[in-house]
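Exercise: predict the fold of this chain.
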Amino acid sequence: MGIRGELYTTQVTLANRSYFFNVKENRTGDVFLQIVESKNGKEGTERDRHQIAVFEEDMQKFFGGLDDSLKFIQKNKKERDKLRAERKAAKDAKYSSEGLSGKKIYKKKVEDPDARPVDPNAPKKTGRIHVVSKRSKN
């Protein structure tokens, strides 16, 4: 038996979280599974830790509930994927009947500076501010 009654431990590391699965034995000889989640705090200096303990006599019920939850997630994912595919197909069918995929394409009109008619009396644009005095000359 290891430190603090640890019989076995394994770690799963994700992008910003780590999960530890520790099988432990307490002083009275009861075996339990300790699941610890560790993640970076908001400021990055401290780590948030949350843990649960599942005792040996409750593990079958616990894993049964976990298994039911996983089955629901998988079934729900299939239904969501199917619904998403139906929506995409309906959208594609709607736009394909209008031609050009039915989507409006907006292009910003860009003027070619050489194509504009040039006024010979207009001030030349040099990038500087052109100031015209409004005072009359005496």
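Check your answer against the key: The CA atoms of residues 35 and 135 lie 84 Å apart.
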